[in-house]
Specification:
By secondary structure, the protein is an alpha/beta fold. Helices cover 41% and strands 20% of the residues. The chain is built from 13 helices and twelve strands. The protein has helices at residues 15-23, 49-58, 87-95, 121-152, 156-173, 185-192, 229-236, 240-250, 256-267, 292-299, 301-305, 315-321, 324-330; strands at 4-8, 40-45, 62-64, 67-72, 99-105, 202-207, 224-227, 270-276, 280-287, 307-314, 334-336, 346-352. The chain is flat. The relative contact order is 0.14.
């Protein structure tokens, strides 16, 4: 199961620099708009101390953390929804991701040109969101036109979709993002297939040094993480020991990139379960609320098809017991059926018919 997060924003706000720091890949990061044309893709591990403790307990030969795919998408400009810049191509790249990280520039630097000539975070957010809203309006209008015949025929799903889209359209025309509209579960299911840009969960990165004051009001109640992208880029270039020493000097206990990875994971409503043994300890990603057979299917489709039971224990209880043998002696290993909802931190062994 793979999840992707698109890094968006205006040109020259630090998107590619952030991506480079995240993935330690050499995506171009130059002082020109449209440096990034085709999106760069990088998969990063989500920091999780639990997997290291489980691997140590089991003396695992291999450790496989969970991960998230980050996509560095080229900078948007005013008029992107009408095709300005490389607009339509960029918008299609955003449509393909599961969530959005919007980088907002707070730093001043006369050597790094701002596309609009001055640093104004609130204006920049409005520019990006407006383009996404205009693109969504275009998508909705086209879909509404296509629904006319189905609605006239009395198709229930078409009628429900039409009502949902009209609610979203009214909201967008009032300057509100699609994700602020309250929809019924069935409406959400129908609308989801349109991949509306402003429906996607969004997290903001305030690209600023520690001495810059950030007003959270401009982020419209969305989660925001202040990150000094330039500093993170410098830290990413260091070896592990050097990085730890430098962070200690700066009084930093956790890197901004680790905070971002965890926040992106939370934004997507994801949780982690583990399989642990001498050969391998591995973290698996599922959406919160996933039941045991579907979680088994993330490992292999045969596991879901032939699911019998799941042997489950919380990761910390397994550590406390000193391993599976101790956990069995204490009666802490549980057998769960097909209706069991897997919890974050569960260590699971699936029983299935091959």
């Amino acid at each position: 199961m793979s999840f992707s997060v698109g890094i968006v924003g205006l040109p020259n706000v630090g998107k590619s620099t952030l991506f480079n720091a995240l993935t330690k890949q050499a995506a171009a990061a130059s002082n020109f708009p449209f440096t990034t044309i085709e999106p760069n893709v990088g998969v990063i591990a989500v920091p999780d101390e639990r997997i290291e403790k489980l691997a140590k307990l089991e003396k695992s030969e291999k450790l496989v953390p969970t991960s998230i795919e980050f996509v560095d998408i080229a900078g948007l400009v005013k008029g992107a929804a009408e095709g300005n810049g490389l607009g339509n191509k960029f918008l299609s790249h955003i449509r393909e991701v599961d969530a959005i990280v919007q980088v907002v520039r707070f730093f001043e630097n006369k050597d790094i040109i701002h596309v609009d000539g001055s640093v104004n975070p609130e204006r920049d957010i409005e520019v990006v969101n407006l383009e996404l809203m205009l693109a969504d309006l275009s998508t909705i209008n086209k879909r509404l036109e296509g629904l006319v015949r189905e609605v006239k025929s009395g198709d229930k799903e078409a009628i429900a979709l039409k009502n949902a889209l009209e609610k979203i359209k009214s909201s967008l025309e009032a300057g509100k993002l699609a994700r602020t509209v309250v929809l019924a579960e069935e409406e959400l299911r129908l609308v989801k297939q349109l991949q509306l840009l402003t429906m996607k969960p969004t997290l903001y990165i305030a690209n600023a040094s520690n001495d810059i004051k950030i007003s959270v009001d401009i982020f419209m109640s969305s989660p925001v993480i202040p990150i000094d992208v330039k500093l993170e880029s410098e830290l990413a270039e260091l070896k592990d020991e050097e990085r730890a020493e430098y962070m200690k000097e700066l009084g930093i206990t956790e890197s901004g990139l680790d905070r971002l990875a965890r926040a992106a994971y939370k934004l997507l409503n994801l949780i982690t379960f583990f399989t642990a043994g001498p050969k391998e300890t591995k973290a698996w990603t599922i959406v919160k609320g996933t039941k045991a057979p579907q979680a088994a299917g993330v490992i292999h489709t045969d596991f879901e098809k032939g699911f019998i039971k799941a042997e489950v224990i919380a990761w910390d209880k397994l550590l406390e017991a000193g391993g599976y043998a101790g956990a069995r002696d204490k009666g802490w290993l549980r057998l769960e059926g097909k209706d069991y909802v897997v919890e974050d931190g569960d260590v699971v062994h699936f029983r299935f018919n091959p």
